[in-house]
Amino acid sequence: MPVLTAFDLDRFLEADPDAPVVMLNLIRFAPGGRDKYMQYIERFSTSGVNERYGVTIVYAGDGHRSLVADGADWDLVALVGYPSRRHFVDMVNDPDYQEFEHLRAEAVATAVLQPTSPAL
C-alpha cells in the first residue's frame, strides 16, 4: 500500500487548503486484511481523532462485482468528508492517528484515495 508523502500532501493542499473535501476510498484488502481494517476503524472511532478533525463518514459499504470496468472490483467503498483539505493533512500527521495508521497500511493491498468536491 503506497504511503502518502510530504510531496503528495503539499500538492493536495495547493488545490484549495480551506475547501471542504470528500474523499472517495476504494479498498481491496490483503489476505486477512478485513479484520485488521476493522481494528483500524475501531481505533479511529475511539481515539478522538475523528472528532478532532471533523471527519464524517458519508457512506461506507461492501463492494460487489462491478458492472463495468471488468476486474476493477473493490472490497470496500467509502466516502469520507473533511471540513477542509488542511483538516485531512493535519489528521494524517497527528501522532495519535499515526499510532494506529499501520493497521490500515497492513490491511490494504490496493487502494484509491480520490479527493472530490461538489460538481452539481
TrEMBL record:
Annotated TM spans: none
InterPro entries to which the protein is assigned, alphabetical: Dimeric_a/b-barrel (IPR011008), DUF1330 (IPR010753)
Ranges for domain DUF1330: 35-111
PANTHER family with a match to the protein in the record: DUF1330 DOMAIN-CONTAINING PROTEIN, PTHR40257
The protein's name: DUF1330 domain-containing protein
Organism ancestry: Bacteria, Bacillati, Actinomycetota, Actinomycetes, Mycobacteriales
